[in-house]
UniProtKB/TrEMBL annotation:
The keyword Nucleotide-binding does not apply. Homodimer. Residues 48-115 form the High potential iron-sulfur proteins family profile domain. The keyword Glycoprotein does not apply. Pfam families: HIPIP. This is High-potential iron-sulfur protein. Specific class of high-redox-potential 4Fe-4S ferredoxins. Functions in anaerobic electron transport in most purple and in some other photosynthetic bacteria and in at least one genus (Paracoccus) of halophilic, denitrifying bacteria. InterPro entries: High_potential_FeS_prot, HIPIP_sf. One of its GO terms (molecular function) is electron transfer activity. Residues 30-51 are annotated as: Disordered. Coiled coil: none annotated. Belongs to the high-potential iron-sulfur protein (HiPIP) family.
Amino acid sequence: MNTRRDFIRNAIGMSGLLLGGSFLVSRCGNPKKPAKDAGESKKPVSCSDLSGISPEEIEKRKRLGYVDETPIADSNCGNCKLYLPPGKGESCGSCSLFKGPVEVNGYCTYYAPLS
């Protein structure tokens, strides 16, 4: 004979199983991918293409004194600690100080030489 206590225990156990199962099913195989930031979704045509960069970031590049061609022979983005080399299939690197494409021969006032 089932008691009220047995009924409640079974009901709570089954609801937990249903809730956990529905959570697992909803998380599996979701074909939708999160949208990327508009600045990251556009790949630059050239390293001087700033079409996907916000005006604030362009201003930051100017304040940091970034130029595409270094004025100092041995100081360039390619041998700077802050430079992030281009990924697979990309032609431009980036910088940890600002967003947007960076020339390997570029330069800014925050140049930090590799040791």
